[in-house]
């Protein structure tokens, strides 16, 4: 709806994009303490992240979302409902190209830990035969 308004449309100035991101951040309730058992807040956060992506692409700042994910979501990722984990990972992946270098450096250690959780650390997978995956990966 907001994208269809002329003040937020394709040629909207940067200050309007910031204003719109501020509205979306308010809907995501990024100032609230995160409760891993609050499914409504998790769903709202994911919806708002996906809603904000087109504006990040156009240069709107995503720092507040990224900082919230870094401080509140990633540390408890393994406790999140299974059905929401993939959506959060997708949203994080989609906003990552539009982050500032400073935000990227700040969130990188958390993302590395998250990758270990999501993919399984090598120590968890000793004795498995990965040759088929390696061959498939190198032939692409």
TrEMBL record:
Transmembrane segments: none annotated. PANTHER family: APOPTOSIS INHIBITOR 5, APOPTOSIS INHIBITOR 5-RELATED. Pfam families: API5 (PF05918). It comes from the Eukaryota. One of its GO terms (cellular component) is nucleus. GO terms for molecular function: mRNA binding. One of its GO terms (biological process) is regulation of programmed cell death. Keywords: Apoptosis. This is Uncharacterized protein. It comes from Gossypium raimondii. InterPro entries: API5.
